[in-house]
């Protein structure tokens, strides 16, 4: 996986979860902790990321950052909420992630 692909995947994870430990990102992506740390530092120059040190630390994406916010109308969002309410567990989880991405 290239650095660009890793960074894209890191941002995808952070857009859906808003916070994650770098260790868990490393395991999920299949890269070393040092590689993820380096990628996060590069991403922090372009995106509103905050690294949090310590035992319960990690990386957080600012709550105000939502690149997809203006792509969907209120009616689109309401339709996704309605669909999630009647969907199976996996589909509801994915729809919930989409709703988080679009604000």
Question: Would you write up a description of this structure?
Answer:
- It contains 5 helices and 3 strands.
- It is mainly α and 103 residues long.
- It has 2 domains: 3-61, Winged helix-like DNA-binding domain superfamily/Winged helix DNA-binding domain (Arc Repressor Mutant, subunit A); 69-102, no CATH class.
- Helix 1 (3-17) packs across helix 3 (33-44).
- It is elongated, with a radius of gyration of 15 Å.
- 10% of the residues are buried.
Keyphrases for this structure?
2 domains; 103 residues; mainly alpha; Arc Repressor Mutant, subunit A; elongated; 3-stranded antiparallel sheet
Brief write-up:
By secondary structure, the protein is mainly alpha-helical. The protein is 60% helix and 10% strand.
């Amino acid at each position: 996986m290239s650095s660009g692909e890793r960074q894209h995947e890191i941002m995808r994870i952070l857009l859906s979860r808003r916070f994650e430990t770098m260790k868990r990102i490393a395991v999920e992506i299949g890269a070393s902790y040092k590689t993820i740390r380096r990628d996060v530092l590069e991403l922090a120059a372009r995106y509103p990321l905050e690294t949090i040190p310590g035992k319960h630390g990690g990386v957080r994406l600012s709550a105000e950052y939502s690149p997809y916010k203006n792509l969907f109308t209120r009616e689109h969002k309401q339709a996704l909420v309605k669909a999630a309410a009647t969907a199976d567990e996996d589909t509801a989880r994915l729809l919930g992630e989409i709703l988080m991405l679009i604000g």
